[in-house]
Amino acid sequence: MMTKRKMIGTAVAVLALTVLASAVFATGWGDLVVNDSPERLPTFDAYENDDELSTESLTYVVFETYGPIVALLSLIMFGAMVGAICVAKEEFDDDDSN
């Protein structure tokens, strides 16, 4: 029998998975792989003019094109770090050293 806590946890996990899946499908991946052989990376100036960021720069592509998926993955990684800290600090009451 599922307790109320397990049901809430399951609902939150399903909701998080749904949001992550929708972000993956909403992101415009474009033509990431055109052919099977690796290509040389293009060299370019990050700024077209003195104050305009180029649309081909890494910063623009990561945060403007793939922004939703980067934000969700960073939240998942933050949650994993917080969970790892909580597990590491967990105290055990069944210490039999005395």
How is this structure best described in words?
With 98 residues, this protein is mainly alpha-helical. It has a domain of 68 residues. The protein is built from 3 helices and no strands. The longest helix has 23 residues.
Feature tags:
98 residues; mainly alpha; 54% helix; elongated
How would you classify the helix and strand content by structural class?
Answer: mainly alpha
**DSSP helical segment count:** 3
Strand content: under 5%
* Radius of gyration, taken over Cα atoms and rounded to an integer in Å: 22 Å
State the major sheet.
none
Share of residues in helices: 40-55%
What form results from the Cα inertia axes?
Answer: elongated
**Average pLDDT, to the nearest integer?**
78
Task: State the end-to-end CA separation.
Answer: 37 Å
Number of strands: 0
How are helices and strands ordered from N to C?
HHH
Q: Outline the low-pLDDT stretches.
A: none
Give me a quick take on this structure.
The chain has 98 residues and is an all-alpha fold. The protein is built from three helices and no strands.
Write the SSE topology:
Layout: H1 4-26, H2 58-65, H3 67-88
Helix pairs in contact: 1-3
